[in-house]
């Protein structure tokens, strides 16, 4: 058993009761002051916000504060070169250098990213504040970058907030219920809200220095032990979501399907009523819109997995206690199945369950209202996402390249991209809607709905590592 | 050859000149214009079909440069034949793998789908012992075995030994040089296509062994699983 107090809290906790999240994107201004700041952050001395650990003890913190360092940040702090050399290539190169592996091409290419992500080498530390109220965010920010310390230059911030209505707290802009399931880890108390048929993940899936899911394989732990052990990596992503484009695509697809000779197999006459009992829809066309939305994601917008209820959403079924057996009616190319094929058949037989990630996301930008009058330019909205795993290469990048954007895991989807988050293009994008008879209806013209607007690979150090980095004798 | 070419233009056809130039002019050029080694493997591509059936061409100099050393390499492969087949089956993304001895090098050529690092990592996880048996016979190999415990370093080591794939077109060759050299290479001088032979000569000095092109296929790219599924072999 390991000590939860050694870990930063955001690795194993979702902070779900703190809907407001602000990211401070910082550059080292003075390495000595920055190291002192890190040392102070462990216990919250001298006004620096205290790092929230994984063990809260009796008192829940009012606000949470966590940090991630880029490779450039570790360098700027003066981390010894012997230690720097032990970090994995993808982290050293940084997210922008790995763009083609992540599908950050065309409109998502790093060259199009706005400030501060247009100067990735200046991004040294990303601090995250979680709070119930905005004034608390302001207060923590003020303490983190107080002028008198001159440790950091604040390059910019990003801010998000869960939707206020309790029913919608875990919803994302596309309208789906999200944040349903996270990996459960061996040796960690299980806080999962739902039963889960997936095996518990070895701790090495999310922390350096522990057994990984690939038998016998260990990821390199940067030395000294205090620096690397119990650390992990995070892919921070600013993902703009084109909700209007998504809804328009559903409109278009529903109209096409209404004319399709096999439409009654997809939606038997009268079946729209059952869908309408759970989701707000208008008639048969509205039901088809929701069928398309459900198939693209692998879940109905209320969270019901297609693997358990393919014909209509069902509030009674479990949200995560399922697998993708041979008779599963979840499309092979659906978003959640591509990201995590669970125990389903995949080409890379040893890779089942090996690319799992802890995901922490919060929406940013105003909520989309389909019924309101259209303005010419929709404001930017999307997701501030964190994808956490002990190996960015073996988990986040492997998932992004082979599974999301190439579809290598199943010959029936190879050559297509993820229908929701993939780098699609209307000229080539396609998605197969499965029918009960085993045949498919192919939807063509799938555009890109998610555009990357920034991001960085960061190392999430343990509390010991923050102490080590904060030591003036490093 | 057109008749209006001058004496200097015709020099490049002259065997004596080529012999002298290789020993004098090329080293001088290389001193004036240092050329970095280009990385190996297929050029990053996001085009469907480009990222399946990718080529890996590894040239690994044997530690023992004699018939004994070569025989050891042959033995290492033969002893692991069954494991190699099992690995191919479980990794699922490799079309072919060949081992060839050329001079005192053991070469591993393969055709794989998807990302190079995933391919090597999955092989380490499946049959890391075979990699260890081969790489321990190779110069510099001891630093990266056992590969199961040095996954990241091993993948990087293999990547560094994968041959640069010389593009088939001039523009793609210049693109690679620009990517390698950063903004400097965008200057008009370096983009002068008439300098290409010189650039090619210098690049082949930095990368003595290369793959010409990225493999030529008689049909569009398909993944292993697509082929197996279509032929009813199961995948």
List keywords for this structure.
heterodimer; A: alpha+beta; 2 domains; four-stranded antiparallel sheet; globular; B: 235 residues; alpha+beta; three-stranded antiparallel sheet; two-stranded parallel ribbon; 46% helix
Helix content of chain A: 10-25%
Mean pLDDT of chain B, to the nearest integer, reads 88
Q: What is the CA-based Rg of chain B, rounded?
A: 21 Å
The CATH architecture category of the largest domain in chain B equals 2-Layer Sandwich
Low-confidence stretches of chain B: none
User: What's the domain count of chain A?
Assistant: 2
3D structure, described in words:
The complex is a heterodimer of chains A (474) and B (235). Chain A is of the alpha+beta class. Helix content of chain A is 25%, strand content 16%. With 235 residues, chain B is of the alpha+beta class. In chain B, 46% of the residues lie in helices and 13% in strands. Chain B has 10 helices and 5 strands. At the A-B interface, helix 14 of A face helix 5, helix 6, helix 7 and helix 10 of B.
Can I get a quick summary?
Chain A has helices spanning 9-12, 31-43, 71-77, 81-84, 89-93, 99-102, 134-144, 225-228, 243-258, 263-266, 272-276, 283-297, 335-339, 392-404, 463-470, and strands at residues 20-28, 64-69, 125-131, 152-161, 232-241, 358-364, 382-389, 430-434, 440-444, 450-460.
Q: In terms of topology, how is this protein built?
A:
The complex is a heterodimer of chains A (474) and B (235).
Chain A (H helix, E strand, L loop, with lengths): L8 H4 L7 E9 L2 H13 L20 E6 L1 H7 L3 H4 L4 H5 L5 H4 L22 E7 L2 H11 L7 E10 L63 H4 L3 E10 L1 H16 L4 H4 L5 H5 L6 H15 L37 H5 L18 E7 L17 E8 L2 H13 L25 E5 L5 E5 L5 E11 L2 H8 L4
Antiparallel strand pairs in A: 1-3, 1-4, 2-3, 5-7, 5-10, 6-7, 8-9
Chain B lengths: L6 H5 L3 H9 L1 H8 L21 E8 L5 H13 L1 H11 L2 E9 L2 E8 L3 H20 L15 H11 L2 E3 L3 H12 L14 H11 L3 E3 L11 H7 L5
Helix pairs in contact in B: 5-6, 6-7
């Amino acid at each position: 058993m390991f000590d939860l107090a050694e870990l930063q809290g955001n690795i194993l906790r979702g902070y779900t009761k703190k809907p407001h999240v602000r990211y401070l994107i910082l550059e080292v201004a003075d390495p000595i002051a920055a190291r002192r700041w890190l040392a102070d952050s462990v216990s919250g001395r001298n006004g620096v916000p205290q790092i929230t650990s994984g063990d809260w003890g009796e008192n829940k913190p009012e606000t949470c504060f966590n940090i991630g360092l880029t490779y450039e940040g570790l360098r700027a702090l003066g981390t010894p070169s012997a230690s720097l050399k032990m970090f994995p290539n993808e982290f050293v190169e940084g997210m922008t250098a790995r763009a083609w592996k992540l599908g950050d091409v065309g409109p998502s290419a790093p060259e199009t990213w706005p400030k501060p992500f247009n100067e990735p080498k200046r991004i040294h530390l990303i601090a995250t504040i979680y709070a119930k109220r905005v004034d608390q965010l302001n207060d923590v920010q003020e303490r983190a970058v107080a002028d008198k310390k001159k440790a950091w230059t604040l390059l910019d911030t990003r801010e998000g907030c869960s939707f206020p209505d309790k029913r919608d707290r875990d919803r994302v802009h596309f309208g789906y219920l999200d944040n349903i399931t996270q990996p459960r880890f061996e040796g960690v108390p299980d806080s999962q809200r739902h039963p889960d048929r997936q095996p518990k993940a070895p701790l090495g899936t999310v922390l350096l220095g522990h057994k990984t899911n690939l038998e016998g394989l260990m990821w390199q732990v940067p030395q000294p032990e205090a620096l690397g052990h119990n650390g992990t990596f995070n892919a921070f992503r600013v993902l703009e979501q084109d909700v209007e484009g998504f809804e328009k695509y559903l409109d278009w697809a529903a109209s096409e399907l209404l004319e399709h000779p096999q439409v009654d197999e997809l939606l038997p006459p009268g079946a729209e009523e059952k869908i309408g009992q759970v989701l707000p829809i208008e008639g048969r066309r509205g039901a088809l819109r929701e069928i398309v939305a459900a198939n693209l994601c692998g879940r109905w917008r209320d969270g019901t997995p297609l693997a358990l209820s393919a014909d209509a959403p069902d509030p009674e079924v479990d949200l995560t206690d399922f697998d993708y057996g041979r008779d599963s009616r979840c499309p092979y190319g659906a978003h959640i199945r591509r990201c995590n094929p669970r125990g389903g058949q995949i080409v890379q037989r040893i890779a089942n369950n090996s690319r799992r990630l802890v995901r922490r996301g919060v929406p940013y930008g105003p909520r989309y209202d389909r019924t309101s009058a259209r303005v010419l330019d929709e404001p930017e909205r999307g997701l501030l996402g964190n994808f956490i795993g002990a190996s960015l290469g073996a988990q986040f990048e492997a998932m992004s390249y082979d599974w999301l954007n190439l579809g290598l895991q199943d010959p029936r989807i190879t050559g297509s991209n993820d229908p929701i988050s993939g780098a699609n293009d209307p000229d080539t994008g396609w998605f197969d809607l499965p029918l009960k008879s085993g045949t498919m209806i192919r939807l063509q013209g799938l555009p890109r709905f998610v555009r990357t607007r920034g991001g960085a690979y960061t190392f999430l150090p343990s509390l010991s590592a923050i102490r080590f980095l904060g030591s003036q004798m490093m | 050859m057109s008749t209006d070419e001058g004496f200097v233009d015709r020099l490049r056809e002259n065997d004596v000149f080529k012999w002298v130039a290789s020993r004098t002019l090329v080293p001088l050029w290389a001193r004036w214009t240092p050329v970095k080694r280009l990385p190996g493997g297929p050029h990053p591509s996001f085009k469907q079909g480009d990222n399946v059936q990718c080529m890996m061409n590894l040239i690994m100099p044997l530690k023992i440069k004699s018939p004994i050393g070569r025989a050891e390499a042959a033995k290492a492969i033969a002893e692991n034949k069954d494991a190699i087949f099992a690995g191919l089956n479980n990794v699922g993304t490799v079309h072919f793998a060949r081992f060839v001895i050329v001079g005192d090098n053991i070469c591993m050529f393969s055709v794989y789908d998807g990302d190079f690092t995933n391919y090597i990592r999955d092989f380490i996880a499946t049959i890391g012992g075979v990699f260890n048996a081969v790489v321990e016979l190779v110069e510099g190999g001891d630093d990266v075995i056992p590969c199961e415990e040095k996954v990241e370093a091993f993948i990087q080591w293999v990547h560094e030994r994968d041959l640069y794939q010389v593009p088939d077109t001039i523009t793609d060759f210049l693109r690679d040089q620009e990517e390698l050299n950063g903004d400097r290479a965008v200057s008009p001088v370096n983009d002068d296509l008439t300098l290409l032979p010189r650039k090619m000569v210098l690049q082949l000095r930095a990368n003595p062994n290369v793959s010409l092109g990225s493999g030529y296929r008689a049909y569009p790219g398909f993944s292993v699983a697509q082929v197996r599924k279509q032929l009813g072999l199961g995948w």
